[in-house]
TrEMBL record:
The keyword Hydrolase applies. SMART domains: GAF (SM00065), PAS (SM00091), PP2C_SIG (SM00331). PANTHER family: STAGE II SPORULATION PROTEIN E (PTHR43156:SF2), STAGE II SPORULATION PROTEIN E-RELATED (PTHR43156). This is SpoIIE family protein phosphatase. One of its GO terms (biological process) is regulation of DNA-templated transcription. InterPro entries: Bact_Sigma-Reg, GAF, GAF-like_dom_sf, HATPase_C_sf, HATPase_dom, PAS, PAS-like_dom_sf, PAS_4. It comes from the Bacteria. The keyword Protein biosynthesis does not apply. It comes from Streptomyces sp. R41. Residues 13-54 form the PAS domain. Keywords: Hydrolase.
């Protein structure tokens, strides 16, 4: 505010003083504010040269003022006094773009306005003023530098006509118009190139309306701050935050390398590749520290802005040798990132000596690029190298800088830890899987009770291989035991526990215990194992289902320790889930197990499985069991196809838990293959038993086996009469072997002993053991059965 001459009580603003001058410098308009400021009335000054008002009346001073657009000049007032005024000169454009006149605004210079003008001019922020039609009225020095144009070149021009960047023009113009339309300030953020350059910048722009004292809108002022550094810093932090969730999502070396390459492009580079040592891919332990000399690395991942990855000179899965002078080899030798670009000797020499890379460079439209090789090092172990390439073009001319190197190091460090974790997991997973497969049945001894097929699928899980297992155990009397189990937990510990339980089941099955008794002994064993490992923090839990099938009686006896019940597909196509009385999980102890018996016709298919099968795809147990039953009824040429049908229906993808599946189709021995005689407990019946056996062997055409069979029958029947007692039964079975069984009422099992020279007995079982392939004893409901097997004569 200033005090006007002749009216000390009245004040006005700079915006009140205005004069209009034509192209010749003649005053054609004079405002009331100009009269109050200078004392001249409009009729006194209109038609006179404006230069007469300037102290000294020099045309040179007017010309300089007009060309500079504004200055502080000395003006003669009407009363003769001299005063300093800050004058602003704005040209008025004619239709042909030439100045058709000028608008001069003035205010007395009390020092503060000069300082304000200097602050506007010298501000580090870009500042401009537009009229309501988006035409330039003012620009400070920073805005002129960004626009690469002098203020006089743009004053009075429509903003879009002053820039070449159409995208920037549309957004900027839209916000200018919004301020005019709404009369409200606007905060505008953009990421674009400066009108005068090619480099991308982040702009924080504040636009606000300019009003006169009456409130009338005169124009729009703006201040734009170049926040590129802050914007790039936020981008780097966002990229690192994204890396924390997108790198290492799976314990897979190649997948993790692919995640790194895809994250780096396009946020950091135009092309990225990841090469690893072969030892890392194989799960082995690489050498610690830097790697020197010629390096063979294998390409595991690459990614590009351009579809098809045309920049890649190495195919995925292929190996390449990097000489010591190449950037990747230098990065691995020094353990620090290597930054280079085309035109530097090391990079050009390497490219020239590599035919494939040189050919790719010749084919490329962009032959100038910046390259960064970052080593992948985790826990002091070198794993490989990531190579990032940024193409240098007119639109993106900036090579990698140290900020980019720091960001790439952070990404590579995070990825290296994830790759190393995946490598360690691969090694442990491979070891556990190999151990588990070695413990699972490889070749099952010949038996006639069932035809079977099986599947085992390890889990696709971070926890590693589980403890699912199955077994087919041939037993005496042509019977067979079908076993399936699941150890709680994953990894090597679960595999080792599974192997111990499988060995225990084989041992208990060899004793020929009934299923419920076998699980009771197995439960005690798991309890002892858990007690032994409790001091080391280990826990053991397992489920198991044991099914014993007799093809002579065509009966199956099943006992379960917390395991899912089996399903049966009958020859007529009906499917039934066996109502097994499920006992506690192994290791609980103190609770009984119960056996369930059912008759199975020849050709029935018994399905045993672990819970990973029926609980796949987030199904509940009932839905999974129903899906299993439906899959069993699907047409199949054989059991192998039936296994595929079940897995295809219930496991469309790799399971999250281990899955074991065992399908067994029952067979039955014809009555003509079995001969049974009940014998009294009379020593005289031994000769009769031998005669029965000889006659049956003749009927079967096995006369060559009569001699050995008579000796075996004689010895076993004699022992049963002497030590066992009635009821006594002799049974001959002709299957893949000739089986002789003698049952008695005693539960005492015989054993071999070495008879002395003068002993009259004690040589019978030794003789049986020498003449037959196998012999043994098993308990029965009324006593025991002693059996012996001998090979059939060659036909």
């Amino acid at each position: 505010m200033v005090t006007l001459p002749g009216d000390g009580e009245r004040a006005t603003t700079a915006g009140d003083a205005m004069a209009v001058v034509d192209a010749r410098g003649i005053v054609t308009g004079w405002s009331e504010g100009a009269r109050l400021l200078t004392g001249y009335a409009a009729q006194e000054i209109t038609g006179r040269p404006v230069a007469e008002l300037i102290d000294g009346g020099a045309d040179t001073a007017w010309r300089e003022l007009r060309e500079s657009g504004g200055a502080v000049v000395a003006v003669r007032l009407r009363d003769g006094r001299r005063t300093e005024l800050a004058l602003r000169v704005c040209p008025l454009r004619s239709d042909d773009g030439e100045p058709g006149g000028y608008v001069i605004t003035a205010a007395p210079d009390d020092g503060s306005r000069a300082l304000g003008e200097l602050a506007f001019r010298q501000s580090s922020m870009s500042m401009s003023i537009f009229d309501t039609e988006q035409r330039y009225l003012r620009m400070n020095d920073t805005a002129c530098r960004i626009m690469d144009q002098a203020e006089a070149e743009v004053l009075g021009r429509f903003f879009p006509d002053t820039v070449e960047n159409a995208e920037h023009s549309r957004g900027f113009l839209r916000h200018l118009r919004k301020v005019v339309e709404t009369g409200r300030p606007v905060h505008y953020e953009s990421w674009t190139r400066a009108p005068s350059g090619t480099r991308m910048h982040a702009w924080n722009t504040e636009m606000w309306p300019l009003r006169d004292p009456s409130g009338q809108l005169l124009g729009v002022a703006l201040a734009a701050f170049d926040s590129s550094e802050q914007h790039l810093a936020r981008q780097r932090l966002a990229l690192l935050n994204k890396a924390a969730t997108s790198i290492g999502t799976r314990l897979d070396v190649i997948h993790t390398a692919r995640e790194l390459a895809e994250l780096a492009v396009p946020q950091l580079a135009d092309f990225a590749s990841v090469d690893l040592l072969d030892s890392v891919l194989e799960g082995e332990e690489p050498a610690a520290g830097p790697v020197v000399g010629d390096l063979q690395l294998r390409r595991v991942a690459h990614h590009s802005r351009t579809a098809g990855v045309p920049e890649a000179a190495i195919d995925l899965g292929a190996a390449d040798v990097y000489p010591p002078a190449s950037p990747p080899a230098r990065a691995l030798a020094t353990g620090v990132a290597v930054l280079t670009r085309t035109g530097e000797a090391d990079l050009d020499t390497w490219l020239a000596r590599h035919d494939d890379r040189a050919a790719k460079l010749r084919e490329s439209d962009n032959r100038e690029f910046s390259l960064m090789a970052v080593p992948l090092v985790a826990r002091g172990t070198t794993l490989g190298v990531a190579v990032l390439v940024r193409l240098l073009t007119l639109r993106s001319p900036d090579p990698f800088d140290q900020d980019d190197v720091s960001l790439a190091r952070e990404l590579a460090s995070r990825a290296a830890v994830c790759v190393d974790n995946a490598r360690r997991y691969t090694r442990e997973h491979t070891t556990a899987l190999a151990l588990q497969r070695s413990l699972l049945p490889q070749v099952v001894a010949g038996q006639a009770a069932v035809e079977f097929a099986s599947r085992y699928l390890p889990a696709l899980s971070r926890a590693g291989v589980g403890g699912d297992w199955f077994d087919v155990i041939p037993l005496s009397g042509t019977r067979v035991a079908l076993v399936v189990g699941d150890v709680v937990g994953h990894g090597i510990h679960a595999s080792v526990t599974m192997g111990r339980l499988r060995t225990a089941v084989w041992t208990l099955a060899d004793v020929d215990l009934p299923p419920d008794e076998l699980l009771t002994h197995l439960d005690d064993l798991v309890g002892h194992l858990a007690a032994d490992e409790s001091g080391m923090g280990g826990e053991i839990g397992a489920t198991c289902l044991y099914a014993l099938y007799d093809p002579v009686a065509r009966r199956c006896t099943i006992a379960s320790a917390g395991h899912p019940p089996p399903a049966v597909l009958y020859p007529d196509g009906a499917v039934e889930v066996v109502g097994v009385s499920s006992g506690p999980v192994l290791g609980v102890g103190g609770l009984p197990f119960e056996s369930t018996e059912l008759d199975l016709p020849e050709g029935a298919v018994l399905a045993l499985y672990t819970d990973g099968l029926i609980e796949a795809r987030d199904l509940d147990v009932d839905a999974g069991t129903a899906a299993l039953c439906a899959a069993l009824t699907a047409p199949a040429r054989n059991l192998e196809d039936a296994c595929d049908n079940v897995l295809g229906a219930l496991l469309p993808e790799r399971p999250a838990d281990d899955v074991a599946l065992l399908l067994a189709r029952t067979r039955a021995l014809d009555t003509a293959q079995v001969a049974v005689w009940d014998l009294p407990a009379d020593p005289a019946v031994v000769a009769t038993a031998r005669q029965y056996a000889t006659e049956r062997l003749t009927d079967w055409g096995l006369d060559e086996a009569a001699f050995v069979t008579e000796l075996v029958v004689s010895e076993l029947v004699t022992n049963a009469i002497r030590y066992g007692g009635a009821p006594i039964q002799l049974r001959l079975i002709r299957d893949r072997t000739l089986i002789c069984e003698v049952s008695d009422a005693s539960s005492t099992s015989p054993h071999l002993r070495r008879a002395r020279t003068y002993d009259e007995g004690g040589r019978g079982l030794l003789l049986v053991a020498q003449l037959t392939d196998r012999w043994g004893t098993r308990p029965t409901g009324t006593g025991k059965t002693i059996w012996a097997e001998q090979p059939l004569p060659v036909q």
